[in-house]
Specification:
This protein is α/β, with parallel strands linked by helices. The protein has a single domain, classed as 2-enoyl-CoA Hydratase, Chain A, domain 1. Helix content is 50%, strand content 15%. The protein has eleven helices and ten strands. Strands 1, 2, 3, 4, 5, 7, 8 and 9 form an eight-stranded mixed beta sheet that branches. A two-stranded antiparallel sheet has the order 6-10. Helix 3 links the parallel strand 1 and strand 2. Helix 3 runs parallel beside helix 4 and helix 10 packs antiparallel against helix 11. The longest helix is centred in the N-terminal third of the chain and has 59 residues. The termini are far apart.
Length: 327
Amino acid sequence: MFSRKKKAEASQAERNNALIESLLTDAFAEQKKARRWGILFKSLTFAYLFVTIMLFYTSINGGGKKGKSANAPHVAVVRVRGPIAVDSDASAAKINGGIRRAFEQEHAKAIILAINSPGGSPVQSAYVYDEIMRLKAKHPEKKVYAVIEDVGASGAYYIAAAADEIYANPASIVGSIGVIAAGFGFVDLIDKLGVERRIYSSGESKAFLDPFSTPKDSQVEYWQTVLDDVHQQFIDAVKAGRKDKLANDPTLFSGKVFNGAKAKELGLIDGLGSVRFVAREIIGEEKLRNYSHQKSPLNKVLENFGLSVGKGMASTFDAQGGLPELR
């Protein structure tokens, strides 16, 4: 009796072991199959990315025709779009890179700055202005034209003033030759909330215009002189660029904006017309080529996929509060 029970238990143990072995074998087989599918899907994903990148690259380079068009007479176009700032698409580094490429291309008959910007950093605007002036002196045979689209105001007009001629649409917004620095004051608010302001500094001007403290008259006066100095630099640059074309009108440098038709009367622009009009009728060449800063195909693909880590990696493949602003 005892022996039969022992044999039964041994037999059951063998069946259990066989079942466990079978389950483990199936599990390993499924895991291996899943790994193979994972590798397949990853390979397809990378293949998709590769093909997409190649399509972007081909489209950007015109399917291999870009080099051919560069060796034929054309008008170089460099775009100035959006706020002018060091970390924007309208930064001096990106704009100047395109301008330099345009000047260095022997088949570019002239350069058009296609401007659609409300302005921004006076420093970035001045960098572009100075670079245009430098390149014009180095390449006197090439003229620079600025074409203002919807808006070419403040820092954008600062850049336009470096051109040999400026054009706009009758409804374009032009001018705004002024400087602004804005902020907030919270003194009364923190008093009402019962908040005590504590600030410690070394240097009498280190807490200059602190928004949680009552501004001192001496600080306001000093800040005004800084803005006036920047404004005068702006005025001098416009006068140097426009020379005797400017009308004798006191509103020119008041920060006021004008439509294109009025800007022509005041000498802020030379004529009315679009990029195509200037290329065809003024320069005498219909073919245009874009020399503006371009993001790499890899950057565009990864941005479309929303991969924040990929954006940082792709940036290496690229072709290239309270501070005063020109508005």
